[in-house]
Amino acid sequence: MFFIWQGSGILVIGIPLFISLVLNLITNMLFGSHFYESSGFMAPLALTISAVFVYLMGIEANDEKHHRTVIDKETREEIKLIEKHTFFLIPMQYWSFVLGALAIYLLFFR
Predict the structure, then answer these.
(1) Taking all residues of the chain, what is their mean pLDDT, rounded to a whole number?
(2) Nearest to 59 by CA among 97, 14, 101
(3) What pLDDT, on the 0 to 100 scale, is given for residue 110?
(4) pTM, whole model, 2 decimals?
(5) At what angle do helices 92-109 and 11-31 cross, to 10 degrees?
(6) Confidence of residue 45 (pLDDT cuts 50, 70, 90)
(7) Among 6, 52, 79, 96, which residue carries the largest CB count within 10 Å?
(8) In terms of pLDDT, which residue wins out, 93 or 79?
(9) 3-class secondary-structure state, position 24
(10) What pLDDT shows up at residue 33?
(11) Rounded distance between C-alpha atoms, residue 94 and residue 86, angstroms
(12) What is the DSSP letter of 32?
């Protein structure tokens, strides 16, 4: 499997994996082994929390205030340097809607 990302876009995968792992460890310590897997709401909860973090990080990372403007010394032309943060060519913040839709699917149709 391959992934296409720019900037911090790989966090679209990293954040849900990290939050799922942390929730799995916490719930298994508090409620016993295999609680995360057997409950029907922990994976959607992890994806919902992840969607919020991905949205906020995507909005912040792709904000125009992070764009730099440089001036070419020879032509005196302004050049705007834009760093994109995408995953599969889609900006990070839009992946939060995919994560939210996946959470709804897992909650009601699993």
Answers:
(1) 92
(2) 97
(3) 77
(4) 0.86
(5) 40
(6) very high
(7) 96
(8) 93
(9) helix
(10) 86
(11) 9
(12) -
Residue count (the chain)? 110
Nearest to 106 by CA among 25, 56, 51, 30: 51
Is the predicted pLDDT of residue 15 greater than 90, yes or no? yes
Cα gap 40→50, rounded to integer Å: 17
CB 65 within 8 A of CB 72: no
Tokens of 22: 């942390």
Separation of alpha carbons 43 and 49, rounded Å = 10
| CA 9 – CA 93 distance, rounded (Å) | 9
81: helix, coil or strand? Answer: strand
Give the pLDDT of residue 86: 96
What is the C-alpha separation between 4 and 39, in angstroms, rounded? 33
* Alpha-carbon span 47 to 30, nearest angstrom: 20
With beta carbons less than 8 A apart as the criterion, state whether 61 and 91 touch: no
- Helix ranges (H only) for the chain are 11-31, 35-38, 42-61, 92-109
